[in-house]
Amino acid sequence: MTSQSSGGLPPPIVVSRRDAARLDALLDSPRWQNDATAEALLGELTRAEVVDDADMPADVVGIQSRVECVDENSGEQHTLTLVLPHEADAGAGRISVLAPVGSALLGLSVGQSIDWNTPQGRVLRLRVTAVHPAAT
Questions:
Q1: What global pTM score does this model have?
Q2: Residue-range definition of the domain harbouring residue 26
Q3: Could you give the CA distance from residue 110 to residue 9 in angstroms, rounded to a whole number?
Q4: pLDDT score for 136
Q5: Contact assessment for residue 100 and residue 82, using Cβ atoms and an 8 Å cutoff
Q6: What is the pLDDT of the chain when averaged over all its residues?
Q7: Which tens digits make up the pLDDT trace of 30-76?
Q8: Number of folded domains in the chain?
Q9: Do the Cβ atoms of 47 and 13 come closer than 8 Å?
Q10: Exposed end of the chain (fewer CB within 10 Å): N or C?
């Protein structure tokens, strides 16, 4: 999985202080030590701009956000909800923030894209088309 903007660099991302604290606590758990997906998420958090919850833009993907995206390669539409690992249910479109696509989507805003290699070996270019924030 690679998150990147048109210049080849990862796109800038924004994470709420609440989500950052929840994810830091999750990543501190022994369950996720030396785990490649946890390390990828930590990398995303390290480069994120962390903002106060009240300053979190409504068009940015956070935990519990429902995300609409399109695969720019196929035109296929996807609707996913980004959740904590214990809430994940791929069949219901509830994607763990620790899944490769979940950590890649975290912090993206409408219009940003990521390249993602599916477990089946397909390359998707997912562009975020809408974000529906979690109800608070």
A1: 0.85
A2: 2-132
A3: 17
A4: 53
A5: no
A6: 87
A7: 888 778 888 888 888 888 999 999 999 999 999 999 999 999 989 99
A8: 1
A9: yes
A10: C
Cα separation, 24 vs 21, whole angstroms: 5
DSSP 8-state code for residue 37? H
Q: Checking DSSP bridges between strand 66-71 and strand 77-83, what pairing results, if any?
A: antiparallel
Task: Look at 91-95, 104-108, 132-136 and tell me which has the smallest mean pLDDT.
Answer: 132-136
Check pLDDT > 50 for residue 14.
Answer: yes
pLDDT at position 29, please? Answer: 86
User: Encoding tokens for residue 20?
Assistant: 């950052």
CA angle 118, 119, 120 (to 5 degrees): 85
60: helix, strand or coil: strand
Q: At a CB cut-off of 8 Å and minimum separation 6, what does 45 contact? A: 15, 20, 23, 24, 27
Alpha-carbon distance 97 to 16, whole Å? Answer: 14
CATH of the domain at 42: 3.10.50.30
Output the pLDDT for position 132.
95
Q: In Å, what is the CA distance from 38 to each residue of 1, 101, 120?
A: 13, 12, 21
108 residue type, one letter: L
